[in-house]
Design a protein that fits this description.
heterodimer; A: two-stranded antiparallel sheet; 8 helices; 2 strands; 4% strand; flat; B: 528 residues; alpha/beta; Rossmann fold; 2 domains; six-stranded mixed beta sheet; 18 helices; 31% helix; globular
Chain lengths: 252, 528
């Protein structure tokens, strides 16, 4: 069994990596960070979920960056091509690359965290720090909502197919089927929530007052030291960035 | 113990009306529970049993859920309700420490955010700030009591039906309540699962817990009760000892199922399924296990309605649950054929793969080996929606089958493609009438009782007039009226030449209502 990271350690590592990448604003570092996130995702066996989710978020984002800064970058001097008011400039492309790689690194790092973290550990760790359990429950429900929705959608699709709905491979057929499944999905989720609410009430979930936790999440001193170091490093990176860009930031 | 005869909980209901409804769902009803007793509240589907149980357990609160006139008395403390704003208020968390409730659907009891059985058991204790050492002891003690000690590290989502039911009971009793209310605790359990729940109830009673059983079957567990209360249309129509009430007209009217489950319904009440030759066509020995294969109603040598040739299947590792082991093969080399007009029952313990087998009939699951043929044609590569023209599948859980806004829309879904616009609505209405749901066309399916929901799901299958009806546990949750409607529908379908395959864990029911009974064990089908 792999040694488990305390969820706060994983969160700190993800947040520090994102902060340092942003502060450094150096595209080779961003690319390295993104590749490291992909490597870790593969090693943790979550690449199959991280990469499609990242593609959904990043593809439109990177395309829009490319169009916005690649074609319309007023500060650009080195014109590579021109169509009417649109100019492709080397500076514009460079800026789009900078911003695109940075965003990609941050998105990948946080997706890796959210898919790799043990949700029960996270909820338990949050409760241990005095965070209201309702917050932990909402967080856990949110992180487990997608699989729950997928299961429910699958059931509705099976019920509809069993009654003659033919779902073919094409995108249009799938979208058409999805449209038919949306209302039942929402109603089913509301129904589930209603019946669970009574049980949660009866089991004391809504009661005010202190709580204890059955699950114990190990937090070895080494991980605590790592978190401190990572936070210090991230702070230093931000400070360094501010200092480095201070004179340039003053309008002349 | 000095409190053996003391009343621990008493509810007296003048009327309870849900908000937004004109007529009370419960009226003129009272139930009292003494420590260590077993009280059975018996009634058909929609009689108000679950509402009564939830009201007793504080799951439905006066003023919050509806208007309640009556009283609740717990251990000498009397709470009077007049349906007024200044009525006493019940704190559900505090109340449930004393009076615990396990709903009909055990999954609804679980928090759904705990990763293991042990953590799910501890959830209620965590919320009451129980010190961790005490929790560890309570979890160990309760797990031993409900027989889940070996499964403490399992994900609750991977438990079988019987294990889930016992976990739900465990979550309810871990706080050691004085009263435990169980809503249909044996529904959809096989014999072994039911025996475990029965043992659990006996052990709880032995330690002084008063148990209330809400059931539509006067089954073996109800037979152990000290007191029966018959609920019909929201009103108590009879109360007394089992000896006084068994065989009474009140039980009969309420739609309560006979003494040992649906299977042993006598011919007078079991509908035309056993009404003799002629109904099913010439040569059919109706309803009983005949010696040798039963002749079928279909004329001529045409292909079987459904054939499975060497079908094998195993579930792979669930990608959403890394770490779970790949399951063993569920089906191995299954060969079987159903003729037109034939009724076949498939039995086997929970988890044997009966539902998996049914899902192969219309292609919801595809065999890893072998072939499935419907009306002589292989369904390999044919979309489920196309196979659906010939196969009607009733799911094990009606909630998985129903998705429309009204009962009529539900029954009519997909019928236009089969029968055209002009006929679709007529077919839907006829199917609803066949299961006794005429007049509910505009009701939302979720508002129907559990029994009616199953009948509606059945109507959606019947309306399509498929060549094969595949019914997964069709009797579960049905009261006697529902069972009669089911049996009539099955016989009518067989009489028009449809093949019927029903999966049931109730061997007695299977023997009484099918031409052949097959058992699925270790992935193989054998005739019994």
């Amino acid at each position: 069994m792999k040694p488990r990271l305390h969820p706060f350690t994983a969160l700190t590592a993800a947040a520090s990596a994102a902060v340092v990448t942003t502060a450094a604003a150096y595209w080779p570092l961003s690319v390295a960070m993104a590749l490291a996130a992909v490597f870790l995702a593969v090693r943790r066996g979550v690449a199959g979920r991280v990469l499609p989710a990242a593609a959904v978020i990043l593809t439109p984002l990177c395309l829009s960056l490319l169009v916005l800064h690649g074609l319309f970058f007023p500060e650009g001097q080195t014109v590579l091509a021109r169509w009417g008011p649109a100019r492709v400039t080397a500076e514009g492309l460079g800026f789009a690359l900078e911003l695109g790689t940075r965003t990609t690194a941050c998105v990948l790092v946080f997706l890796l965290f959210s898919f790799a973290v043990s949700v029960p550990d996270l909820v338990s760790a949050l409760a241990g720090r005095g965070i209201p359990p309702q917050f932990g429950f909402v967080l856990a429900s949110t992180l487990t909502l997608l699989p729950a929705v997928a299961v429910r959608l699958d059931r509705i699709r099976q019920a509809q197919e069993t009654r003659g709905m033919v779902v073919r491979r094409g995108l249009l057929s799938r979208l058409g089927a999805l449209r038919l499944q949306m209302v039942p999905l929402v109603l089913a989720l509301i129904d589930d929530a209603g019946s669970r609410a009574q049980a949660l009430d009866a089991r004391g979930f809504g009661s005010p007052g202190p709580r204890t936790s059955y699950r114990e999440v190990a937090d070895p001193p080494g991980q605590r030291r790592f978190r401190t170091a990572a936070l210090l490093f991230a702070t230093a990176a931000v400070a360094g960035r501010i200092v480095a860009s201070w004179p340039a930031g003053v309008p002349s | 113990m000095t409190a053996i005869t003391r009343t621990a909980l008493q509810i007296r209901i003048e009327a309870f009306t849900f908000h937004g409804e004109g007529t009370p769902v419960l009226s003129s009803a009272s139930v009292s529970v003494t420590p260590g007793s077993l009280t059975a509240v018996l009634g058909g589907s929609g009689s108000g049993k679950s509402t009564l149980g939830k009201l007793m357990a504080g799951w439905l609160r006066a003023g919050h859920a509806g208007a309640f006139r009556g009283s609740l008395e717990l251990d000498g403390t009397l709470l009077e309700f007049r349906g007024a704003p200044d009525d006493p208020r019940i704190n559900p968390a505090e109340w449930s420490r004393r009076v615990a409730f396990v709903p009909q659907d055990p999954a609804a009891m679980l928090s759904s955010v705990r990763a293991t059985v042990a953590e799910e058991l501890a959830f209620g204790l965590e919320n009451r700030a129980t010190p961790r050492d005490d929790m560890l002891r309570a979890v160990g003690r309760t797990a031993a009591r409900i027989g889940l000690s070996d499964l403490l590290d399992r994900d609750p989502a991977t438990l079988s039906g019987g294990e889930l039911r016992r976990l739900a009971v465990g979550c309810a009793v871990i706080a050691e309540p004085d009263i435990l209310i169980l809503d249909e605790p044996l529904a959809s359990l096989d014999a072994a699962g039911a025996a475990q729940v029965e043992d659990l109830v006996r052990s709880l009673r032995g330690t002084g817990t008063g148990v209330v059983l809400l059931s539509q079957a006067a089954d073996r567990l109800a037979g152990e009760a000290t007191h029966w209360t018959v609920l019909d249309g929201g009103t108590v129509t009879a109360a007394g000892t089992p000896a006084q009430l068994s065989g009474s007209a009140e039980l009969e009217r309420a739609g309560v199922i006979g003494v040992r489950g649906p299977g042993i319904l006598g011919p007078p009440v079991s509908g035309p399924a056993v009404s003799g030759p002629g109904v099913l066509g010439p040569g059919v020995t109706a309803g009983a296990r005949g010696p040798g294969p039963v002749p079928v109603a279909a004329p001529g040598p045409g292909p079987a309605a459904l054939e499975l040739h060497g079908v094998g299947f195993g579930y792979g590792q669930d990608p959403r649950r890394p770490g779970t082991a790949t399951q063993a093969r569920v089906l191995r080399d299954v060969d079987f054929a159903v003729q037109r007009g034939e009724i076949i029952a498939v039995t086997g313990p929970n988890g044997a793969g009966k539902s998996t087998l049914l899902r192969h009939f219309n292609g919801l699951l595809r065999p890893s080996a072998g072939d499935v043929r419907v009306c002589g044609r292989s369904i390999a590569g044919v979309p489920v929606g196309t196979v659906a023209a010939s196969i009607g599948l009733l799911f094990q859980h009606p909630r998985d089958q129903l998705f429309e806004r009204t009962v009529l829309r539900e029954a009519a879904f997909g019928l236009r493609q089969l029968f055209g616009k002009a006929e679709a609505e007529g077919k839907a209405r006829a199917a609803l009438a066949a299961v006794g749901l005429s007049g509910t066309g505009e009701v939302h399916p979720a508002e129907l009782s559990a029994s009616q929901q199953r009948l509606l799901a059945l109507a959606t299958v019947l309306a399509r007039e498929p060549a094969v009806l595949a019914l997964d546990e069709p009797t579960v949750g049905l009261d006697r009226h529902g069972l009669e409607a089911l049996q009539a529908a099955v016989v009518r379908a067989a009489a028009r030449g449809a093949a019927v395959v029903m999966v049931t864990h109730d061997l007695a029911y299977a023997r009484m209502n099918a031409h052949r009974v097959l058992e699925l064990t270790d992935g193989r089908l054998s005739e019994i």
